[in-house]
């Protein structure tokens, strides 16, 4: 005929409809479920990127170049430039915070 008969919660042995696991799953709003998955979705790619970065760093440091203009001249100059720019930025931020320098935009 029309397929198997419908079985309600009382026929399954549930006294109260509130304790029926089927009805409790239907009561969950779908917007709540994905929010709990976001941290788990970030763990896999995060660990993958971290391990790949460590592997690349290990390969780079296993045979470091010791001669050439990049190592002897440009790398120290770039490092000194970055440290100098960070220092100037920190001094400017401190002077702005104290009120010695006033900037109007």
Primary descriptors:
flat; 0% strand; mainly alpha; 2 domains; 5 helices; 105 residues
Detailed description of the structure:
With 105 residues, the chain is an all-alpha fold. It has two domains: 7-64, no CATH class; 66-105. It is built from five helices and no strands. The longest helix has 30 residues, at 69-98.
Quick gist of this model?
The protein is mainly alpha-helical and 105 residues long. It has helices at 9-12, 21-27, 32-35, 38-62, 69-98.
Query: What characteristic shape results from the CA principal axes?
Result: flat
Counting H and I runs of at least 4 residues, what is the number of helices?
Answer: 5
The largest pleated sheet is described as: none
What is the string of SSEs from the N terminus onward?
HHHHH
Proportion of residues in extended strands: under 5%
Determine the fraction of residues in helical runs and give it as a percent range. 55-70%
Oligomer: single chain
Structural class: mainly alpha
How many DSSP-defined strands? 0
Contiguous low-pLDDT stretches (5 residues minimum) are none
Rounded to the nearest angstrom, the radius of gyration is 32 Å
Number of domains: 2
The end-to-end span amounts to 79 Å
Mean pLDDT: 76
């Amino acid at each position: 005929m029309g397929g198997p008969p419908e079985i309600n919660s009382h026929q399954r042995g549930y006294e109260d409809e509130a304790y029926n696991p089927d009805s409790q799953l239907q009561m969950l709003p779908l917007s709540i479920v994905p929010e709990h998955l976001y941290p788990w979705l970030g763990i896999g790619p995060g660990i993958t990127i971290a391990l790949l970065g460590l592997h690349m760093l290990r390969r780079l440091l296993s045979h470091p170049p010791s001669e050439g203009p990049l190592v002897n001249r440009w790398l120290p100059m770039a490092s000194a430039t970055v440290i100098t720019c960070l220092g100037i930025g920190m001094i400017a931020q401190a002077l702005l915070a104290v009120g010695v320098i006033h900037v109007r935009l």
